[in-house]
Amino acid sequence: MTDAVDLLAIAAHPDDVELTCGGALVKAARAGHRTGIVDLTKGEMGTRGSPEIRAAEAAAAAKVMGVTHRLNAGFPDARLQNDDDTRRELVRIVRRLRPRVVILPFPVGRHPDHRIASELGRDSCFLAGLANYPADGEVHKPEKVLYALAYREDPVKPSFVVDISSEFEVKLAAIKCYSSQFDTVDSAGEIFPTGQQLYELVRTQNAHYGSLIRAAYGEPFMTYETVQVDDVVTMGVRSI
């Protein structure tokens, strides 16, 4: 299937993916993997910009990141629901894109759409694998679900951090495509203000997570299942 991707990020609004896991998508694309993004809403309730402007910005950012497919589900912003109609549509999209790995927002967040997007995404990935679930497309269940942990203030320790030192400037360029949202601002979504301009705040946050793995920049992720290590002799990150 020509639409199939290896890695799919699902998030509530255009720009959420760039902020939380854009570096991982760039790294995957550079490694030869097909990547995809599903923006669940058009962000029409946002204070800045417009749905049309944000759609153009999302397309530009996808090009910067080398994303294979970017879709917008068109669900209502600030009124996102994990109900049967919404799940059926997202199941159809998951079956179309057939991702091996899916990245979702962390299940806790101050924006209700972020919390619901996480639950909706996981439920839809499961239901996409049920032969008798009434949605278009061939049955497909992703192999792995990851949760992006960037900008969390609760004490959640990452299961792992992706080294995006070589990808960070590309990630930042993708974020800067959203000038309607981020130019001159000091906070966004789950990102609380620190007195820094938002682009510098992103750099600081990614540098912090990079430091946890002794790298310049990193993105943190969580899995509910234990991560397998095949060779403890070659594990990264020095202990002493």
Task: Describe what you observe in this structure.
With 240 residues, the chain is α/β, with parallel strands linked by helices. The chain has a single domain, classed as LmbE-like (Rossmann fold, 3-Layer(aba) Sandwich), CATH 3.40.50.10320. 37% of the residues lie in helices and 16% in strands. It contains seven helices and seven strands, in the order βαβαβαβαββαααβ. The chain has helices at 16-30, 51-65, 84-97, 112-127, 168-176, 179-182, 198-212, and strands spanning 7-11, 35-41, 69-75, 101-105, 144-148, 160-163, 218-222. A seven-stranded mixed beta sheet has the order 3-2-1-4-5-7-6, with helices on both faces. The longest helix is centred in the middle third of the chain and has 16 residues, at 112-127. The protein starts with 6 loop residues before the first strand and ends in an 18-residue tail after the last strand.
